User: Fold this.
Amino acid sequence: MLRQDSVTSKRLIEMLQSNPAFVAFAKAEGAAILARDTEDGEKLGAGIAIAIEKGVLRAQETPPVYTKVDVLGKSAEEVAEALLGELGPEFKSGVIVLVGLSGTGKGTTVDMLKGRLPRATTWSNGNIFRALTLLAVTHCLQQGLEFNQAALTPTNLALWMGMLSFEHRKADGVVVSAPSCQEGSGFFDTRICGLGLDLWVSDVCNTVLKGPMVGKNIPTVAELTQGEVVAFASNACQAMGDAGICVLLEGREQTVNYIASPHRFELIMSDAALIGMRRAAQRVGAKAVELLGEASEDTAVEGAVAEALKQLAAAK
Assistant:
């Protein structure tokens, strides 16, 4: 139970799949996942449409092709093995793009691959949106203006994106050799240089970029800058891949379709009902651990699972 991983979820599903309360809870969780994914996809699609209209991205006549990997009945290790098999022994570096509905295990699979591939790192667009937001708000402050959507003109956005660069980060004049995207170990890092700022993202990702000035304004910026950030991400990931790094990127097709890579995978679950069951099992397992405390006897575990399901189902 304490492992809280794909093995735990699988065992909980086996234990509870004939329980009517669990089946109903899993159905509700599955419906919520699909609704949330659909809403997110629509928002991202609208952002990409804005980028195409501005000329930041080119419309794709034909979307890229993804190799489908069915995760039904597979452990995270088995899913990772399937992807590695598709990549082949000759794969040494490059950008691996992973998509799929929430609940299919993208994050866990990325973690597994990161431990199996040489010089592997992950990429997230989050800090690029935050860096762009910092520049937008700083610009407004310097102009004596309150930040709002009107500041996000194509001219301003192009200017601010020009203040972001993805570089080999140097320490004492020597390039640090550890592969990293935005995780603080150097080598590659995003630099913010303009409007009086000269910052490395890995130095400020947990301070300045998570401060209130950025946090309250990032939704407005993210809504209108999908294209700019995706274009930056594609160039950054390509630079790392060319430098011999394995870059792991998960996301929604609406945006990652624009990341240059021939290595694309979609995690699917041939029995869609299991997506809700997996998420329900994760929530039940986490709640059961909370209720268990220090107890570890089988009877205590069973009781905690039953109580966890009761509480979660009642809250729906």
